[in-house]
Input
Amino acid sequence: MSDTLAVINCAQLVTLKGPQRPRVGAELGELGIIADGALVVRNGLIEAVGTQREIEPLLKSDCAVVDAGGRVVLPGFVDAHAHPVFAGTRVDEFEQRTRGVTYQEIAAVGGGIAATVRRTRAASERELVETSKRYVAWFLRGGTTTVEAKSGYGLTLEDELKILRAIRRLNDETPLRFVPTFLGAHDVPEEYRARRAAYVELIIKEMLPRVAAEKLAEYCDVFCEERVFTTDEAWRILTAARCHGLGLRLHADQLSRSGGAQLAAELGATTADHLEHTDAAGIAALKSANVQPVLLPGSVYALGATRYGAARAMINAGLAVVVATDFNPGSSPTPSMLTILSLACTQLKLTPAEAITCATINAAYSLKRGAETGSLEAGKRADFVIHDCADYRELAYFFGVEHARAVYVSGREAFRRA
Output
């Protein structure tokens, strides 16, 4: 097989070429589109991009050629917040919510995260890997090539390690690229409800040292809410995580204005995620510390809520906004970044160009991957998707459609629609 690949006849080659940092303000709408574009890939890396006329002289006789057929070619989506390793589903709870029962009411009687924890504890590592491979296929066929993957459905030392080891195996055994995050502070498990301080100590003194020693995670996350982990508890856990060399992420202000945004800023976290209840003061704090906000409109939609993160206010404040799926079995059971693009436009009031930037290059930078993926530029990994449309705006306009015709990860075909 040739180690050189050329993609030609791209109606729009959406490169996202621009400054080598997360995009802010008007930059969010600048996609670096090359009409009648083409690109050359060598040994898994992009060697050149340009118009077809510019690229054709570079092609050698041994170069494999892919004809995009007058379609849009885009960087692979980077999903910067997901929970893709779990056992079972929560379709029963979904039905309950259609009858008017709230997410909080379900959790109060042992449902919600606790229900998935029970099922995930009962599953073996092998079973989790095999189940998750089904979701890997869903991500790829939707045009996603990189996914942040959180643990958090074990909540014991061995079960959290089991999930993170499953993520490592998925990284090795599938084309999808995973960025692992330790989320032992996803909830207080049932057996610790009456002694929550002991669970915080377990995370700090036993879980974090083992996760770090086995190099199973790049980040640590905490679900910061008064009914889950308080700002004081989150501060202790994240401070300890930083001592172990882990980057910091934070579920912040999802269900209430809990002070999560301010805490993320105080700690210099890489991201603050959700932010549905974050106010002007929280936005200002995030800006002062250059924390990237990760907005998750899929979870608002799936829970039947109406309060979305203040994306436009964040953009106006100069923040490098990210959008992601929050794929999980309870509050956002979708791996589709295309669905998120639609919600970003209709609910967050982003333009299609802004939404794509938030789902590619900005998301890549939020995972410390901006130098290697998220845009189509020479020297970066050849993670790209041929979408079955002629105008990039169709990706958000025709919602509920899987547009990806072919998906490439490091220059190798990972999915092709028959």
Residues 24 and 319 are 6 Å apart (CA to CA). Residues 78-366 form a domain with the TIM Barrel fold (CATH 3.20.20.140).
